[in-house]
Amino acid sequence: MRTKIFSIKTAALLLVCSMLFSLCSCSSFSKKDVIAAAREVAENIEKFDADRLIELSTLNKNGEKADDLRKGLNGEYLDENTMKFCTAVRNTISYKILEDTFSAKGNEASVDIEFKLADYKSLLRNDYDDIDALVSAVKKSDDTVTVTYNARFVKEDGQWLLDNLMGSSFLDIFDFMNADIGVLAVDLTKLVNSAACKWSGAADGVYNNTRKLSLIVELRSDVTKLKGKGVKMTYTVSKNGKDVWKSEPVELGAKTKYQLDYGPTQDANAEMSSNYIAAGSYKFTLAADNGTVLYTSSVTAKVTIKETTTTGTSSKGYLFYDNDFSKKVLQAEWVPVDNKRVNATSYGSDATRISFQMKIDPSNTENLYFAFFYASSFADALKIKVKTDTPSVSGVANPIVNSQGTFFALGLKTSQSFKPGIYILAMFSEDKSTLYGIAECQILSNPTSYYTGNN
User: Can you state the angle between helices 131-140 and 80-90, rounded to 10 degrees?
Assistant: First the structure.
């Protein structure tokens, strides 16, 4: 009996030992295989090899998450500068399999993988002149951060496959790809969609008889990333290679389309010819406030209509409203006093006298009330109401009689020079009850020789 009992106990003991040996052996083999699978996963995370990671996982290879992973690791969601930054950070990644964290239960297992990479968040607290400076800082940095990925595996058909690819723990490794690198996130040199830009109203790059140059600029959608970043742009206008005007700064980010205008409304000293934008080659240069040139474009302005004005006068710079008075006027003009007149309605900035003269019928003995008004720009000149606004200079003129006939000479003089701008002359009956007419001329921004070629 004892022998039999002993034999049974011995057999039971042997069976238990056999089972324990079997379990230990299975766990040992599982750990080795899972660690190997984890190492291959880590290596391909370092390589940003999306296709291989998908092959090593249970992820649907044709699903949306797999597609997002491919596009994400290929940088398809990044602009050029952010891609440069992310590549620099990626090159600092290293990994370590924390084997003591291994655990397994049946066909499931997990192990932690520790990734070290440059401490990009600390680096982004500093200011950089450009993306190259930021990339250089990443490469030189000795400071690192650690991200731990708990990789979970399942055993299918004898192979351990990663079961939490694209899980939150996995995505934490790539958090640097979502970093806001500020203004560096936009390549300013490629901000303008050049193909969509155009000159409004110009035919084949030429404006004929225009009072305004208008460049329509289209920016790429990336510009919205600059909203609130304080990045500003200005545009400079040059004529025949010489800068003549610069706009006020405009902050970028709110919209993708801008109209850049130039003319007397923007620049009171804009050079005019017969009150049109003076003929020449004009270049608009659009630049960010850090000096980066965003876009340049040129256009030609031509003046083919002679002697015109803008505030209601005729092509000779005057217009009479009273028929009885106009019948008495035999001849009228802005006279070329001291040879400073550039054309029928304009004088150079070196003029010290301007004069509007009318030869009238000798039978006219009536005096005139006259009033001069000044406007710094054509836009302001259009706002002047000669019947109610206060003039700069006013008085009563008497007819002048000489051997040449009977004349009115209505003018202004200065000891130095006139301010560039528009000078409007209003002529009334002596009692101011009737407006006879208006004449206007312009004092240009440059001396007479600039326009006539005289030395």
Answer: 10
Phi/psi region, residue 129 (left: phi>0; alpha: psi -120 to 50; beta: rest), is alpha
Interstrand relation of 435-443 and 346-347 (parallel, antiparallel or unpaired): parallel
**How far out from the chain centre does Cα 220 lie?**
9
- b/e per residue 13-33 (b: at least 16 CB within 10 A): eeeeeeeeeeeeeeeeebbeb
**DSSP assigned state of 185:** G
Question: Strand ranges (DSSP E) for 163-277?
Answer: 198-199, 206-208, 213-218, 232-239, 242-246, 250-251, 257-262, 272-273, 276-277
**Distance of CA 270 to CAs 14, 234, 264, 440, Å?**
107, 18, 5, 17
Domains of the chain: 27-185 (3.10.450.50), 189-302 (2.60.40.2550), 318-452 (2.60.40.10)
Write out the two tokens for 71: 């596009």
Tell me the C-alpha distance between 416 and 274, whole Å. Answer: 24
First to last CA, the chain: 140
Convert the pLDDT of each residue in 397-447 to its tens digit: 999 999 889 999 999 999 888 999 999 999 999 999 899 999 999 999 888
CA distance 271 to 289: 27
CA 281 to CA 278: how far, in whole Å?
A: 9
The overall longest dimension of the chain from CA atoms, in Å, is 166
**Nearest alpha carbon to residue 111 among 40, 48, 25:** 40
Tens digit of each residue's pLDDT (9 = 90 or more) over 224-255: 888 877 889 999 999 999 999 999 999 998 99
Exposed e or buried b per residue across 182-209, where buried means at least 16 C-beta atoms within 10 angstroms of its C-beta: bbbbbbbeebbbeeebebeebeeeebee
Q: Which two tokens stand for residue 2?
A: 């004892």
In whole angstroms, give the CA distance from residue 340 to residue 448: 6
Residue in the structure block whose two tokens are 């092959």? 55
Structure tokens at 156: 């299918």
